[in-house]
Amino acid sequence: MFRYALRRLIIMVPIGIIVTFIVYAMVFALPGDPIQALSGGKPLAPSVIAAKRAYYHLDDPLFSQYLHFMGNLLQGNLGQTFDGQDIGEQLALRWPVTLQLGLTALAIQTVFGLLFGIYAGWRRDGLVDRALLGATLAVLAVPGLVVMFFAQSVFSVQLGWFPVSGSADGWPTSYLLPATVLGVLGFAGLARITRTSLAEVAGADFVRTGRAKGLSPQRILWRHVLRNALLPVITYIGLDLAGTLGGAIITEGIYNLNGIGQFMFRSIGMKEGGVVVTLSTVLLIGYMVVNLIVDLLYGLLDPRVRHV
User: Fold this and answer.
1) Chloroplast as a keyword (predicted)?
2) For residues 240 and 262, what is the distance between their CA atoms, to the nearest angstrom?
3) Structural fold of domain 95-260
4) Domain range summary for the chain, segments of one domain joined by +
5) Terminal Cα-to-Cα distance of the chain (whole angstroms)
6) pTM score, two decimals?
7) At what angle do helices 173-202 and 144-151 cross, to 10 degrees?
């Protein structure tokens, strides 16, 4: 198991380098002058512009800028934004908002997705199964942004059940509506894959053998079927965590939550490549750690995977 985990860790290194360089190159290619954008359109003295560009290495070639940034990052120096804010302090302030929103949405999505998916897959072609298929198709067909704005308009503006925007009321009040919207959007895919996987395993030969031996349906489901059916489900949840955090970043802009998403949008607008890559790197590391945990869970549930 140790060698299996070590192989996965080694694979993560080149992936991290490639992804961070691509993100840095994309920000580098954005049009406009970040120093001029910092002034809000007001003219700056040429000496001030030159000093700022030299301080942030903006006149260096792309690869030199990237190496300078990665060198500081590996030393634990996250640097500063163009307006002098410490990036590490900003991350410390904003991470709790994004994590609370993302993890709340993931909890809602996982609980309801697994419950409805397991029930529908175990009792195929029943009322719940057909209702689930119809509901998931409807959710998947509607764009997420439309659902977010609609929920905000109806439940916050018209009914007044939740705050319209901001996080002043704290968790869970300020996060419940956006997290529920995110959870519902992710619920459809999770419920469908759980239902499909469980239905396939339920029709296997060993399940029919267990029934012929007189095992109770509950024992067959919880002791035999779920162990095999949850393998693709675990993979989906692990991969979907990145999608949930990405959705949380977009949702922060709609619901005016002061998290990583707002920081990312602001940094892209200011063409602050170092900040964008730092945020992307942090998200990438979290994503790869989750994938490592998923791989290890795979190895525990199915020992054959360790030799792949």
Assistant:
1) no
2) 21
3) MetI-like fold (1.10.3720)
4) 1-82+270-308, 95-260
5) 12
6) 0.72
7) 140
